[in-house]
Amino acid sequence: MEKNQRTIDIVKRGLNKRYRSEKRFKIYGLSAILVSIIFLALLFISIIGTGYSAFFRTVVKLDITFDPESISKETLSTANYSGLVKKSLRGLFPNVEDRREKRQLYGLVSSGAAFQLRRLAMADPGVIGKTVSVWVPANDDVDMLMKGQMERNVPQSERRLTDKQLTWIDKLSGEDRLEKRFNTAFFTGGDSREPELAGIWGAVMGSFYTLVVTLLLSFPIGVSAAVYLEEFAPKNKWTDLIEVNINNLAAVPSIVFGLLGLAVFLNFFGLPRSTPLVGGLVLTLMTLPTIIIASRASLKSVPPSIRDAALGIGASKTQMVSHHVLPLAMPGMMTGTIIGMAQALGETAPLLMIGMVAFIVDVPHGFTDPATVLPVQIYLWADSPERAFTALTSAAIMVLLAFLIFMNSAAVLLRKKFERRW
Amino acid sequence: MKRICVLALMVAFVLSAGVAVARDTVAIVGSSTVYPFATVVAEQFGKTSKFNTPKIESTGSGGGLKLFCAGVGVEHPDITNASRRIKVSECVMCEKNGVKDVIEVKIGYDGIVLANSKKTAPFKLTQRDIFLALAKDVPDPSGAEKLVLNPNKTWKDVNPELPAIKIEVLGPPPTSGTRDAFVELGMEPGGKSFKWIKAMKRKDKKQYKAICHTIREDGAYVEAGENDNLIVQKLNANPDALGIFGFSFLDQNTDKIQGSFIDNVPPTFDSIADGSYPLSRPLFFYVKKAHIQVIPGTKEYLEEFTSEKAWGPDGYLADKGMIPMPEEEREYYRKVVQSLTTISCDDLK
């Protein structure tokens, strides 16, 4: 019996089982991908669902009279602009007499309205003496009501707006004085404690300056380190030790770099706290290992024949490296650098120690102005008591994700375009 | 190209060294409870004055005082916010590091609330209930004058009038000033309500503090992190749980959560302001007098903070949920700021 059994029979007997197991294996892989896609979709849906409303804000039309009695060319910067806003509101609702009710009335309009009038008058002093219709931001509570994020059919004590305020709002929107507009302040403003005025431009600029410092430092240092280690360094115990250390550093939790930055850059060198300069230095420490490792890998992938040919026709080692190996390895190095930068863009932990997790209103204009970065801004908004900051948090996450997607696809494109295969 | 990079770096370093000498932005650190109030003042100040907007870091009261007391000079913060008074040990550390003239300004009050979801009835608690529910060791239920490991599982075990719901309280971690204040204002009076524990205060202060200030660690008290918004969300998801946080978060979320009555007083703006709500604490900030001349805008920031339109009963800080001080106290601290009166560590003892 045993003898007559042919190999093909044994194979055939197990064939179905093997097919099944292959199918199973495929399904495992597929479901793993499916699960990650579902989670990604959930993440996007929840972020976009809560965040899209922040791209619009409610504005109120007020007829402002720039009364020459309360404002003149000399007092442009110090005039009582919120007084003008209040006066115009009183003009709209002349029957509001009670002091408490007046406060509620003034509360419909954002405190940013006064700043807006101030800017307007400073830019064009000709408005003095005239009455101008101005669209000013509404208070965040009004904004949430208009966006349907506040329940109006509940007892007064359970919502942030009183019944009186609701009737005023209805009257305003009946007169077409309330409108939802694209929220440009979100993209052009600095941070604010008033959700309707808060913007991410300050954080974007902070991130920009920080990354410029990081790039300027980590790219040249990382590439030179990689070139030396790969092309010039002798293979011995010391270079092995260095290699192990670089790989280790790539795995060190980023908060450690923050502590190092605090001890070295702030306490020893006395550099200013909360600045992009120090943030960039700390993030350089963090991204260097990534860049060195990626650069070495791309140097290794340049075939030795290129080096031999260059040396063979009489090039010096430096010429060989700078004329032939480096240009060929550059796309890989750039990809590594961009990924390192994307990592640095999303980092908050090391910045906590050097004071970049702070409330900063003024948009930074240089490397030594106090600044925060995008992920820190997200963290700070998520921690704010005002409810309207929830939408802002998600909107800021969307902006950060857009930057990350942009950087990562740039890395992919670079690789696709310039990579050479041998 | 590389040479240019190196050159640019060197220039950047030289420039930064130059900037480190002069700073034209007021630097503020400190309590995360005061942060939402101080930031509003800073923003108002920045937008209405010719000075830069002060920079505020939220480091916690203890962390802020540590940075503040590290020394005098532009690399150290000018002001630190605190949700409790400076400790003698901190004041001594300040003096040792040359920070000798510190101005103390009380700015207002903050209520600590225990809140639960609106889906269920509000809790009516006493401080004794809080102590019995959350202390690690409680007096033996049989009445003997000794301690046992807290056996209470439900609120009904604590007080027969309370519902038979499992004790589950979400609160801040030990690093938080809110927790310190909660322990001091909520639990200690509860412990004191037992005569023999009260008597212990004179005999053995350390033991007394350990009893009154230690929170149980068997899972009934959940450390929910410093993010109060997260606690509010968790309360909404779990109607049986109570959460501990500052009044401003209750104020912003009145549609979702409700504050528990303490001794039959609900946590409202008025009850905290008139002192009838027991869990309220003062908020402070501390300023280095030596910095006022050096950092432009410091004095003006103090004036903005102590102006009636900021910290008054109708001021914008009250809108954000800070409980204003009575008139005389405001007057007193406004004078302190005008005359730059400093404190000495002996006053604190």
CATH topology of the largest domain in chain A: MetI-like fold
Distinct helical segment count of chain A: 16
Mean pLDDT over the residues of chain B:
87
Sheet with the most strands: spatial strand order of chain A: 2-1-3
Query: For the terminal residues of chain A, how far apart are their CA atoms?
Result: 54 Å
CATH architecture of the largest domain in chain B: 3-Layer(aba) Sandwich
Work out the oligomeric state of the chains in this entry. Answer: heterodimer
Using the coordinates shown, work out and report the CATH topology of the largest domain in chain B.
Answer: D-Maltodextrin-Binding Protein, domain 2
Structural class of chain B: alpha/beta
Class by alpha and beta content of chain A: mainly alpha
Q: Would you give an account of this structure?
A:
The complex is a heterodimer of chains A (422) and B (349). Chain A has 422 residues and is mainly alpha-helical. Chain A has helices at 7-51, 81-92, 99-106, 112-123, 140-146, 163-174, 184-188, 201-232, 237-250, 254-268, 276-300, 304-312, 317-345, 349-353, 374-382, 389-418, and strands at residues 56-65, 131-137, 178-182, 358-359. Chain A has a 3-stranded antiparallel sheet with strand order 2-1-3. In chain A, α1 packs across α16, α8 crosses α15 (374-382) and α12 runs antiparallel to α13. Chain B has helices spanning 2-21, 35-48, 61-68, 88-96, 127-134, 155-158, 177-192, 195-203, 205-213, 228-237, 247-252, 269-273, 289-292, 298-305, 308-311, 316-319, 327-339, 345-348, and strands at 27-30, 55-57, 79-82, 102-117, 124-125, 137-139, 147-149, 169-171, 221-223, 242-246, 257-259, 261-262, 280-288. The model of chain B is unreliable at 16-20 (pLDDT under 50). Chain B has 18 helices and 13 strands. Chain B has 349 residues and is α/β, with parallel strands linked by helices. In chain B, β1, α2 and β2 form a beta-alpha-beta unit. At the A-B interface, α8 and β4 of A face α1, α2, β2 and α11 of B. β4 of chain A pairs antiparallel with β2 of chain B, so a sheet runs across the interface.
